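Bench log. Compound arrived from synthesis this morning; before running ITC I wanted a structural hypothesis for how pyridoxal-5'-phosphate sits in the protein. Inputs:
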Amino acid sequence: MPAPISRRILMQGSTGAAALSALPIAAQGAADQNGVRTLIRLHLNENPHGPSDRAKQAMRAALDDGWAYDNEDALALRRVIAAKEGLKPENIFICEGSTELLKVAALLYAGNGKDMVAGLPTFLAMPQYASRNGGQVKWANLDAAHRLDLNAMEALVGSATGAVYICNPNNPTGTVVDSGRLRSFVESVSKRALVVVDEAYIDLADDPDRTTMVDQVKLGRNVLISRTFSKIHGLAGLRVGYGLGRPDVIRRLEEMRVSVPNRMGLKAAMASYQDSEFLDYSRSMVRGCVTYTCEFLKSMQLPYIPTEANFVMFDTGGSSVDFALALRAKSIYVQPMTEPFNTWARVSMGRLEHMEAFAVAARAHFKKS
Ligand SMILES: Cc1ncc(COP(=O)(O)O)c(C=O)c1O
């Protein structure tokens, strides 16, 4: 039986990663007879099916030389991504997970006396890093459909604004903004500030080709797209992400980067990028789990936000921290939200059996409370 977990520990960190690592190992889940922990991780939006067999094969093949500093794998990946996106290698930034890109962009464009605009709630890596580095964040509430409110965000752009952060699909809501409106937003706002479009979940969107803002990069606008191998590709711990932007923006990121990606991760990323069968499989598994989870929430009469990502945000109707703690006692991790959504929680899509376990535990919690 896991040890009890305090509310304070649960609420540390916006993504839940800090909360998880802050727990003593014994509290991180029940163990089976072999001592293997059986945590059900529905709080980090990972791919429970990943990585693909081709990515695993690439890692195995790299065991002999994957330990060395990389000198050509990042360039090879830049070339392959550029060719697929109709861009040039100088438009591509390969980084240690997209968090590196978001933080370096925050430092360069939104720290030190500048400000940035972001929606509330959204993924916090960039706004948090900007404010920790002397920047100010101007927050815009979501619209009535829980989408980023582009009109409200545009109205907040001022003379000190260095960047605007658009997470699309947005984490934690899973919503997508109207792509025509986003294009006009990028066209006008990018004249005054860098528009960072975080497309971490783009492969899960209903219509990725319409949703992506890659065409805006091709038009030479001041826009930076952030992508990651941590989500649908299932390579979160290997830390590989990439950015798409104008060569002058990419050069600035390169100058300020914190580290270089590891060779094993790059080889896995290259194999996964070209494995469309695995990506289709993952997408269909996620969609199946979203349908199952939304049906369950409907049956419990719990309001939820229709999602285009691998997580669903829903209203527990009470304290979401209490809800998350009740599930944690059963080794199931979900992410409680903070103000103004502190009765809401976000559950990531695991395997179907994980979602069934989630439904059983959630039902038991609501029966009791
Ligand atoms: C919207 C969004 N962007 C970026 C990231 C960071 O991913 P990574 O640094 O693993 O690429 C996450 C992780 O949860 C996310 O949800």
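What the model suggests: The two ends are 21 Å apart (CA to CA). The longest strand covers residues 161-167.
ITC booked for Thursday regardless.
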